[in-house]
Amino acid sequence: MRVTVLNLDIVSAQFPKPDPRCPKQMLQFSPAPVRSILILQTKYLGDIVLASTLAKNLQLEYPGVRIVFLCEARFASFLTAHGIASEVVTFSRARLRGSPLQRGREFYSMVRGLRRHRFDMTIDLSDSKTSRVVVRLVNARTRVGYHPTDRPLRWYERNPANIRVTRFGYGEKHYLYRYLSPLEALGIDLRVRTPSIDPLPLETARVQDLLNRHGLRQNAFVAVHAGASFRGRRWQPERFATVIDEISRETGLDFVLVGGPDERAPAEQIVAGTASAVVNLVGVLSLETLLALLKEARLFLGNESGPMHMAAAAGTPVVGLFGQTRPTRWAPVGAPSICLQPSMPCECVARDLCRWPDPSKSCCVWRLEVEPVIEAVREILAQTEVAVQPPPVVRATR
């Protein structure tokens, strides 16, 4: 992957293989086969998409292996339908953050679901206090975890891992390589380097009917995601509306708004603020249908989010809008992309809302102006018209 940073100098990112002088860990020589693996990924949609690459490599290394994900219930059908996981054990994040009674009941239910399985290996991608407790309770023969952990362990805490993994593997800094680093520690060849998730045939047919119903053409519309988990990560709806009108006028492309049920408000503001006809599908698509829709799009334009990573995994070009989150860590991988970020350090525009230094609760993306986004859309459309597609680009705006 080559990245253009600020001054547009090209930097080549190599993909080194594990040092052949380092012996593989004893797991590879164990006579006991690996039949079942638990992957603890209790985070968000973008993390799930990146972690799918780890699952594919494990499936190639251990044919017939049963991979079980521990994740939120809303991701269950997406993981199993696309073959990323054989099974899923779910939990409710809301209940785990509820009253002590709610937390206790949810944790007990989650652990009971896990204990019904007999895992040969656990891989703790979440790297949290809760996930380490779960790993100890499951007590698989091989327990893979990060060392050092993301947050220093307290005096009474213990890392249950017996195979310890560096925070970022293969000499890389992108979060994809955080989730691939267990392979390096296990001595498993890295065969699949980027997320690639194909839509289900049934969902592709469903999306074709949807496009016909709304008069949309395949590969002739832009999927726009204006939502995010926190208000500060949402670029202003009126600026999305301006970009939509300009690109629609220049190219004749149609526009489709996508997102979850809790992201209807910014979508409605965009619809009200555009002169162009916009199809609003926010809150009406399952994740499986959303993936199939993104596959048919000419371009994805949106905030740094799970749908951005889904679009890239489907092979759709991306223009991603970033705030304090570093694109070098979280840029979409798997498709041509341009990531825009305001110059840093940020000149704060929302001191009453920002919770610095937490990038998920900062409003730096609000400093992105409209014109650089329009230029990025023009550029990625021009680039991806040719057969040989260019590498991802990271760009800071002034």
UniProtKB/TrEMBL annotation:
Does the record carry Magnesium as a key word? no
Write one Gene Ontology MF term.
ADP-heptose-lipopolysaccharide heptosyltransferase activity
Q: Which residues form the signal peptide?
A: none
Classification via InterPro entries: Glyco_trans_9 (IPR002201), LPS_LOS_Heptosyltrfase (IPR051199)
Which keywords belong to this entry? Answer: Glycosyltransferase, Transferase
Per the UniProt entry, what is one GO biological process?
Answer: lipopolysaccharide core region biosynthetic process
Q: Which SUPFAM superfamilies match?
A: UDP-Glycosyltransferase/glycogen phosphorylase (SSF53756)
| Record-level GO cellular component terms | cytosol
Cross-referenced Gene3D superfamilies, in alphabetical order? Answer: Glycogen Phosphorylase B
PANTHER family linked: LIPOPOLYSACCHARIDE 1,2-N-ACETYLGLUCOSAMINETRANSFERASE-RELATED, TETRAACYLDISACCHARIDE 4'-KINASE-RELATED
Q: What is this protein called?
A: Glycosyl transferase family protein
